[in-house]
């Protein structure tokens, strides 16, 4: 009887925690956005500045995700398949963006690539601006989403049966063909799920981006900073409407990730 009561209390506590911290805030955002009806909601999301901010955020998030897919796949491969001095330290550094405050990450980018830095100064002489322009936003997004693809690929490489790879070599396949036809299909679910999580995370990034973007409406103003500006302007309706767009897109991505993982487990 005590065991059942303890189990019921534990489950009730978890469910209460989940409802208070996740479900109710989500319901509150949707309620706030549609509180005045469909017309004000539609007016808020079709506002030129809001729409430009959302489209810019999606575009730069796609760029950051592509970079993360390429770099994350290569880094995950190297960390699993090769042994070299400092490998464990490098592997632990992968999770640094999760532990580091994003504002600190933005400050690091500002100091390393800003107009007064060596790299930023040389780029400025060549007529290429980094900080307060779109490249800085992409770099900030890549930084905060860096671990997702790597951590998605690594477990699949560790679990992969090497006999299949060895059989491919035995049958005369080249390294390139073996990678494309044997290894890459095994890595693909991790790459896809990591990419979708990285994209979803990049959509909502604020702390690292706000310091390096310049926040110029129509040019470098992204959705999260736009939402913050609407709250500062006492326009909760406009902020909630744009938040609903991002939240709905994140839900769709989360559903796609769960579908990919379910198919992988079924195999």
Summarize the structure in short.
With 267 residues, the protein is mostly helical. It has helices at 2-33, 38-45, 48-81, 87-93, 96-99, 102-113, 118-125, 134-159, 162-170, 175-203, 207-210, 223-232, 236-266.
Task: Give keywords.
267 residues, mainly alpha
Summarize the helices and strands and which ones pair or pack:
Elements: H1 2-33, H2 38-45, H3 48-81, H4 87-93, H5 96-99, H6 102-113, H7 118-125, H8 134-159, H9 162-170, H10 175-203, H11 207-210, H12 223-232, H13 236-266
Helix pairs in contact: 1-13, 2-13, 3-8, 3-10, 6-8, 8-10, 9-10, 10-13, 12-13
On the 0-100 scale, what is the average pLDDT? 84
Please bin the fraction of helical residues. Answer: over 70%
- Helix tally equals 13
The termini sit apart by 40 Å
Coarse shape: globular
Low-confidence stretches: none
Q: What can you tell me about this protein's structure?
A:
The protein has 267 residues and is an all-alpha fold. Helix content is 80%, strand content 0%. It contains 13 helices and no strands. It has helices at 2-33, 38-45, 48-81, 87-93, 96-99, 102-113, 118-125, 134-159, 162-170, 175-203, 207-210, 223-232, 236-266. α12 packs antiparallel against α13 (236-266). The mean pLDDT is 84.
